[in-house]
Amino acid sequence: MRIMQEMSLMEKLNILSDAAKYDVACTSSGSNRRGDGKGIGNTVNAGICHSFSADGRCISLLKILFTNECIYDCKYCQNRRSNDVPRASFTPDEVCRLTIEFYRRNYIEGLFLSSGIIQNPNVTMGLLYQTIYKLRTQYHFQGYIHVKAIPGADPELIRLTGFLADRMSINLELPTAEGLSHLAPNKHRKTILTPMRQIQNGISVSKQEVALYRHAPEFVPAGQSTQMIIGATPEHDYEILSVAESLYRKFDLKRVFYSAFVKVNEDKDLPALQGGPPLLREHRLYQADWLLRFYGFEAGELLSEKNPDFNLFLDPKADWALRHLEQFPVEVNCASYEELLRVPGIGVKSARRIVQARRSSRLEYQHLKKIGVVLKRAIYFITCNGRQMYPLRIEENFITRQLLGIRENLPFEKDGVTYQQLSLFDDRNFGYDGKQLVQPESAWRGAVG
């Protein structure tokens, strides 16, 4: 550990903003609190941290650690105790100054504040509380604040911080307790889940009080979230998604974030990652997470013990549809909203538009395109007024090839056969019937789209 003395504020900022880059648990604010005219800043539902607001603006936040000093020695963490890296710590006033100066220059609209554990959880949580308290009361900042709750800290410190922050999060770190004890021996699952439950209960009580008393203070109005590292331990996607589903149901989380494991330390207990960080796997988990939260799917529908990992070539929704072709095609003019949500190429907005539009008229394929349906994916799973857009076979291998773009076939509506341009290297065994080249049926069946 190298503790650098007498650093400038800019030097600290460079170190502690870089140290925060592996924490992905920040996104749109999710709360709606307007400024009262006496301070600066405000929070809107639109979003923070390189997100797009309802009016099209791209907005961001200042994302830093309060300190990268840490008493823990988690094997996957860049800031672990045993690493020889430059160390720095802000003071509460320095964080406030940075936030205000960045806001005044229109660089940010909010703050994401996390921290390593300095001395013990209580000291760390106390410093975070002091920072947020000063920012709200002395600097009169009314913008978005997302702060990390420190597991093991005094519940009263977490409660007080919750009345000042918009969102709080506690990192689950790893999907299972076994993985946590193996790679982060100083951390315990119970210590993490206890403050998570406290925040959940505090949010529930706060909502009841606000409903009764208009000016009652709100506790974590934007809800809580968590983060899991993916690929550092050998869990399958089914286990990870089941954990996320359980967290949504039991703790009312707003969001579970998945962070592809990046190997920043050399340790015999860490995987080699020959192909680099599992970014595609992370992407599939985010897609599946979206299906859990907005499309009515359950983890057991998408994966199982016999099929524990996602298809890396197909997104989870398309993969599910191909495994349940008995439920398709769906007639868009009479299918329920829930049935429409399960069609690849139809999202939440387009499903709502379909339900609304068909009240006044029967829909055709040209209407679906204007509504926002991705027809190049949906045409294999829907009918309009009892007919397909093209004569297509509802068959798993055929649809899979089309979705993967293996063949670019042109639909031919008269005989149901599709054709493709041949290259010089196609082996087709053509014959000649005296008038033209003829391909045997056994050969052209393989080219049918």
UniProtKB/TrEMBL annotation:
One of its GO terms (molecular function) is metal ion binding. GO terms for biological process: DNA repair. Residues 338-357 form the Helix-hairpin-helix DNA-binding motif class domain. SMART domains: HhH1. It holds the Pfam family HHH_3. Keywords: Iron, Iron-sulfur, Metal-binding, S-adenosyl-L-methionine. It comes from the Bacteria. The keyword Cytoplasm does not apply. InterPro entries: Aldolase_TIM, DNA_rSAM_put, Endo/Exo/Phosphatase_dom_1, Hlx-hairpin-Hlx_DNA-bd_motif, rSAM, rSAM_sf, RuvA_2-like. NCBIfam families: rSAM_link_UDG. PANTHER family: ENDONUCLEASE/EXONUCLEASE/PHOSPHATASE FAMILY DOMAIN-CONTAINING PROTEIN 1, TYPE II SECRETION SYSTEM PROTEIN K. This is DNA modification/repair radical SAM protein. It comes from Gallintestinimicrobium propionicum.
